[in-house]
Amino acid sequence: METKFDFDKEQSELQKLASRKVIKLKSFYKQLFIYTIILILYLLKGYTELPLNVFPINLLNGVIMILWAAVVIGSAIDVFASFKIFDEDWEARKVKSILERRNKKQKWE
Length: 109
Description:
Elements: H1 4-47, H2 55-58, H3 62-85, H4 88-105
Helix pairs in contact: 1-3
């Protein structure tokens, strides 16, 4: 039988998980917005005659944009797909595995 304390504890944990997810989403959307602005500037710099050779923009090159794109894609996978890959069953199996390894390594006298 589930008590009110168990329910409150579960709600608290769900609230913590939700707030962490919101923080991750907020961070991802900020990063995506900044990346989009920089990508537009990079494309304008490369394919138009606009004078965009000011300090931070003149340092943009293809390698930086490719690396940044990889980081954005990795962040998107972390935010949107990691819960499907690493679900609750995976977490339970991993915890059980770690505890079993710890018990095997424990030396009895």
